[in-house]
Structure formats: C-alpha cells, structure tokens
Amino acid sequence: MTAVGEGSAPEDRSALVITLPMANPLLAAAAEINPALVRKGLPAHVSLLYPFLPAAELTADVDAEVRDLAASLPAVQTDLKDFVAAPRFVAVPVPALQPVADAFCARWPHIAPYGGRFGERPEPHVTLATGATDEEAELVRDRVRPLLPLRVAAWRVDLVVRTDGDWRLRLTAPFAASP
C-alpha cells in the first residue's frame, strides 16, 4: 500500500473516495485562512462511504466488488460552482456524483455514509473547512469564490485504509470510459 498522508480518523478504518486533484487549489485557499480548518491526509475528494469496512474485513473479494462496481459506472466531468454551508462547515457540492454514491451505498446498504450523521443519502461534496467560526467560514467562501466554477473529472474510486497515522491507498478502481 502507498501512503497518501496524515489524517485524524481512527486507525484501521477504510473509506471509498473519489479524489479530485483539480480541486486541490480550493483546499489551499481554505488553508490560507486557517490551516487547521482543512483535514490532512487526502487530496481534495468526495467520500462515497466513510467509514467503510474495518481493515480486517477487506478481502480480495471486496476489492473485486469495488473494482467491478466502479467499472460499471461512467467517468464524470462536472463543474464545482456553489457552496454548502452549515455551522462550522464549508463544502462544495458535487451533485453529478450522486449516482456513483447511490450505487456504492446500494451495494453496501448496511454501511451508512458518515455513520448516518447526515442522513441516509448525504449530498456528495468536497469538504473545504471543518471547525470554522462563522467569520472563518465567510472568509473561506470569499477566498474560494473567485476559483469557481472549476471543472473537475472523476475517473476512479480509491479504497484507502488508515494505518500507522496515515491514509494508505489499498486499490484504485477506474470507472468505465467517459460517455
């Protein structure tokens, strides 16, 4: 497995994510306001299922299921253009990835995204800031707004595992060719 960076999640957790490196400048802009607002460990991404399975339950069969499901879905290109704001939270929604999120949630219906904290079907999003004061959240939006709209492409799903203080890439599962 390849290390992809520090994070603050519990050890032996896994996640299914879609990395969107084209959105990394949005995270950098948020970090200019306060680096503590931006979660460390992964590049800009949309979490499909977090937490996913405990690391001990990840098997070759699970890997194959992730790969097969991703391969059955088209790659997605979309524009990031709006904000989602809630207390202490700023994100950019990625509604074009809802069918992908729905497919992965349907395959593993016993796993609630974010442990159910945000309902059964949370909107796919790139988190820009967590733990922000109202003033910091407004500053993040002001700093990021000139960077939008931003064209991004989703080409794959990554299965990452948190071990030894880092998120480690377990597998990459490409989507089918673009429509």
Automatic annotation (TrEMBL):
Pfam families with a match to the protein in the record: 2_5_RNA_ligase2
Keywords: Ligase
GO MF annotations in UniProt: ligase activity
Record Gene3D superfamilies: Cyclic phosphodiesterase (3.90.1140.10)
Protein name, entry field: 2'-5' RNA ligase family protein
Lineage, broadest ranks: Bacteria, Bacillati, Actinomycetota, Actinomycetes, Kitasatosporales
